Amino acid sequence: MEKDEKKKKRDFKETWYYLKKTYPYAKKDKKYLFFFFLGCIVLCAIQIVAPIFTARQIIELTNEAWQQLFWVTLAILGIEVLRNFVRKVNNFFINRFFYSVRKNIQLEVARETLKLTTETLNTHSSGVFIERISNDTSVIAEIFMNIIDYVTYIISAIGVLVSISFLNMTLFLLYVGFLIILFVTKAYAQKVLKKKRRLEREKSEVASGFVSEMVRGAKDIKILNAETSFLSKANDIVNDLNQASYDYTKTRRNFVFWNGNIRDLLDFFIILCGIYFLVSGQLEVATMIVIFNYRNNILAISDFLEGFLELIQRYTLAAERIFEVIDSPKFPKEVFGSKQVKKLEGHIKFQNVSFQYDDSQEVLNDVSFEIKPNETVSFVGKSGAGKSTIFNLIAGLYHVNQGSIYLDGIPVEELSKESLRGNLSIISQNPYIFNMSIRENLTIIKHDLTEEEMVLACKRARLHDFIMTLKDGYDTIVGESGVTLSGGQRQRLAIARALIQKTEIILFDEATSALDNETQAEIQQSIHNMQGEYTILIIAHRLSTVINSDRLILIDQGKVKGIGTHQELLEHNAIYKKLYELELSDEEKSKQE
Length: 593
Ligand code: ADP
Prior knowledge:
Elements: H1 2-27, H2 30-59, H3 65-113, H4 118-123, H5 126-167, H6 169-216, H7 218-223, H8 227-279, H9 285-327, E1 348-355, E2 364-371, E3 376-380, H10 387-394, E4 402-407, E5 410-411, H11 417-421, E6 424-427, H12 438-443, H13 451-460, H14 464-469, H15 487-501, E7 505-509, H16 517-530, E8 535-539, E9 551-556, E10 559-564, H17 566-572, H18 574-592
Parallel strand pairs: 3-8, 3-9, 6-7, 7-8
Antiparallel strand pairs: 1-2, 1-4, 4-5, 9-10
Helix pairs in contact: 1-9, 2-3, 2-5, 2-9, 3-5, 3-9, 5-6, 5-9, 6-8, 6-9, 8-9, 13-15, 15-16, 17-18
């Protein structure tokens, strides 16, 4: 029991802790909150004064009862109209406040999500972030809107209780006892419900992650003819979520049922006491009427108590989940240095670099090489040799375990985010193209992009002629992930993006997919257009495409096994020679087929 008490205290402390953390997002709009609070005070006053007014009028009914009744009814109507009006104005203020606070928090979670380390993003389903950005932020914003509502109800409850204490001390004590018993039972219910709700939120994350994956992968699911198994998995996941939701709702309904019964029993008991006091002459009729009028308020308070505790529980859970993304070590953020370099020259040096992704095998082992500014260097080697890992390390997506990587002589981890990311671009095998027009996909990189700059970049990326064949030209919407573009076109659009970014270093992961020769030639041509002006690193999946590179670096099982031109390696390096011959014979075979 003592342990439970301590825990409960901790629960409230936790809520207070998160409220303090949430407040900065609401600070800007606190004027709305202030007006709302004023409205709530007026509502409170009506709540306390109206029953006294009604009772007094009823008691003072004289012979001219009809006339008096008319005025009393009119006054009650007036009070109700006033109450509704204040509520309407209050709703306006609180809605403005709610949407603004929710937006502030949503933007913050989105901003922080973009700072997460690649590893964190890789190891969590997208549902984790979608759910938190869309659902939990609403719950958080609701707290301010509801808490004031509840606080005013609590103030009016105290007002009502104080009024009762003046009227009859025994009934006052009974009502206080009544509220304490209800509070304890409801607090216990919320404690049980919190666990169930947390489980439900987790299941919900899994479900939305799966759904988003299913929608994004719909095309592949159809091609793989895997609809049935995907739907069956969806069925399991949704069942799981439904079970957790059902469990929460069922437990909640049970608590509502039992708490309702306890409430009604206590209420019945207090009424009995009231009748006893009336009959035994300890209470006057008028006082009894006032207390009876207040009774509705007390019963409402008991319901509000339930809502209040549930709100706190929902809020704490949502805040816990939101602040996990914003500032907890559970979701680590990328760390950058403070060295500012506006324009890197493009000198890259790996010095005895070793790296492993997790506790598994070492992926790079004592790798050293140097690339001069404006050189074009291709990395070759079998799949899984560690080529993409080299790119990931240069881009600061992961950090080395041993050794150092220098850009223009500065260790990568010492560069600021702008200096590093602003000076290099990665063109991946399957670049992510946003569901916007081609123009917007390019202006998102540079807001003040001129028409000439855009067309020039697309011409150099060998994409302009294709864009001109589209009905809407540069304003053509390319669909989610650029689905309406071919693999080669997506890569060329990414090249145009890199050209617009004007980064000194371009990391290019050549597509493995069998692009047709013409597309391949176009891409080769667009890279060729950049050669000599930029430092270009290419992961070459086909050796036939690297002949034009200044140098090749051969990676085998995480080690550098040769550096030189295509011709040099072919003559002096057995591994490269074998790799080259293997590719030739593969090409030969596919030609024969
Ligand atoms: P390549 O580009 O030469 O095909 P990679 O650098 O992609 O090779 O992969 C090298 C090794 O690292 C592979 O064994 C691969 O399974 C592993 N690997 C790649 N990415 C990750 C990751 N994010 N987490 C754990 N292991 C990874």
